Sequence to fold (272 residues):
Amino acid sequence: MMIGDPRKVVSNVLKIVSHTMPWVRRTMALLVATLISVTLMAAEPTDEVQAGKEITAIYLGAAPLLKDSAAQRYVNLVGRHLADQSTRPALPWTFGILATESVNAFSAPGGFVLLTQGLMDLLESEDELAAILAHEIAHVVREHHWAIIQKQQQAAALIARMQGNMKSQNALFSEMNSLFSDMMTRGLDKEAEFEADRDAVVLAANAGYDSSAMLSVLEKLDSLKADSAETQLLFQTHPSPLQRLDQLTLVITSEVEGAAAPTNIPLYRGLR
Fold:
């Protein structure tokens, strides 16, 4: 039996999970479906920005954007200022806040970054917001997720040249489902997360923010319960905050000397 159009496969998955799973599990399932879709479209290769748009659309299908135009504008101003200091300022950087109490932040290839209202509520300064956004920007700049998608596109292209062998296509679908499920439940390699933390500290400092704000963010995350519904996905997909703190301690003093003075500006700059 043929798998059929990958978009139809994804559509069917979305119909099944959209009303039967809590937000965290639904998000994971939707992302798996999207990544499989991107990979199976080997005959029509997807570029980085297009892949990011598709993945971001799935996030927004799981949780809508927060209906607060001032907050959304503010996050985009901070995010784009940070992105301008990166090595990829020309990407169509777009930032947003998801209307969910879950505590997390996400990035997609091509310059798309989302964080949750639950995470925003934990933050106490613009420096802390900049630390979170800089971490996600670093994932995009380093192409952490995009590299995984590209590898799977290459694998799909090889399979596609096997003259439509049904068994091979089904095996590929099953293998990728397992791979992406694993990636979404366990996250990126720890080294990728540590690398994003290190880059974020330097990026935030170059943009004029307090480089130590990442430490205060990680301390806040460490105070949360890892098994709560709001934090479960965050702790499943990232190293523990204590591990990240240990890795960052040396970076704070060795890599950001001479950076601009801390701003320590309260969130929203009076927009509220």
